[in-house]
Amino acid sequence: MLQALSRIGGRRVLQACAAVAVVLGLLLWWLLPLGQPAPTGTLTFSTGVRSGVYQRYGERLKGDLARDLPEVSIRLRTSEGSQQNIERVATGKADFTIATADALATYLNDGKPGADRLRGCVRLYDDYIQLVVARGSDVRKVSDLRGKRVGVGQRGSGVRLVAERLMAAAGLDPAHDVTPVSAGIDTMPEQLENDRLDAFFWSGGLPTSAVQELSDRFAIRLVPLEAPLIKQLQAAGGSARYYRSATMPADAYRNAQQDQAVPTVAVANVLVTTERSDAAMTEAFTRTVIDSRDRIGREVHAAQLVDLRTAIYTDPLPLHEGASRYYRSVKP
Predict the structure, then answer these.
(1) If residue 72 lies in a helix (H) or strand (E), which one and from where to where?
(2) Fewer CB within 10 A of the end CB, N or C, for the chain?
(3) Residue-wise DSSP of 258-294
(4) What's the Cα-to-Cα distance from 188 to each of 24, 158, 194, rounded to whole Å?
(5) At what angle do helices 279-291 and 321-330 cross, to 10 degrees?
């Protein structure tokens, strides 16, 4: 009798152990999709100018990536902006980057080196075009920039692309009707403050710290970019279709806007890699970007606008297989 009970008890213990093993196996399968080993190696993330949103976002994302990808060495590399970022990733000088949709479409349309290799991971936040002048300036619209010294961004930046297009849409020749100054957001505010610029364009998330800090110490104003100008801008077709009308809320830069919303142009940012990027690495990178939204957003406000519902729409780029795998894993 005792032996029979012992045999029954033993079977129950074995059955319980088997059940635990199944549960643990399922748990590991869930945590490690498709049984892929943890990514290893190095990756370079091309960001932007030092005081811009791309760089500030990248600095904070690096910490979360280091936590989620402990076997991967992550290097941030500053840049002039979207155009240089795209060239770096397309030609293998960087692994991941952020770039605006209009700059990506321009690179694709021009058939530049490596264009066919580019892939999207996440649609991030929107950039807002900001035309900044001293509060007492006589510039009230883009066409008033004629004869002025205008900061237009660095040669490899996305702001250079849209600034020149906006001036052309307003009937200005960007090379001859203004004095274009090639500078980034790291120096343009100081140049405006010290009367070495009459105006500058910036394309970035709201608020951009460099513009915020300028407004705290110097009286500035944001020039509205009205609907007729935006329609003229969009009429060029091609990559201009990625521009849309938007409004900077009254509290984006309280001192500069004096409680007034400002009409402007917006364009989406995309997290970019290439088809050569390892699928497991790209899946993990995409997961970290989505999961870190709220934490990073407390310091870089634009990050709060990353939305899982729209993140998959990386037009004009096809979605990378690793990113697609991530979105399938979180699909309800």
Answers:
(1) strand 72-77
(2) C
(3) TT--EEEEEEEEEEEEETTS-HHHHHHHHHHHHHTHH
(4) 56, 15, 10
(5) 50
The Cα 262–Cα 223 span in angstroms is 8
* 223 close to 140: Cβ distance less than 8 angstroms: yes
Contact call for residues 134 and 192 (beta carbons, < 8 A):
yes
Q: Tell me how far apart the alpha carbons of residues 159 and 130 are, in angstroms, rounded to a whole number.
A: 9
Enter the tokens of residue 8.
Answer: 């029954």
Helix or strand run (H / E) with residue 41: strand 41-46
Give yes or no for a contact between 158 and 242, defined as CB atoms under 8 angstroms apart.
Answer: no
The two three-digit tokens of residue 184, written as one number: 């980034």
* DSSP secondary structure of 107-173: HHHTT-TTGGGEEEEEEEEEEEEEEEEETT-S--SGGGGTT-EEE---TTSHHHHHHHHHHHHTT--
Reported as a single tens digit per residue, the pLDDT across 309-331 is: 999 999 999 999 999 999 999 98
Question: Residue 36 CB: number of other CB atoms within 10 A?
Answer: 15
Based on C-alpha coordinates, what's the Rg of the chain? Answer: 25
**Kind of pairing between the strands at 41-46 and 96-100:** parallel
Q: Counting beta carbons within 10 angstroms of the beta carbon of residue 173, is it exposed (0 to 12), middle (13 to 18) or buried (19 or more)? A: exposed
* pTM for the structure as a whole: 0.86
284 contacts 291 by C-beta, under 8 angstroms: no
pLDDT in tens, 28-46: 444 444 456 789 999 999 9
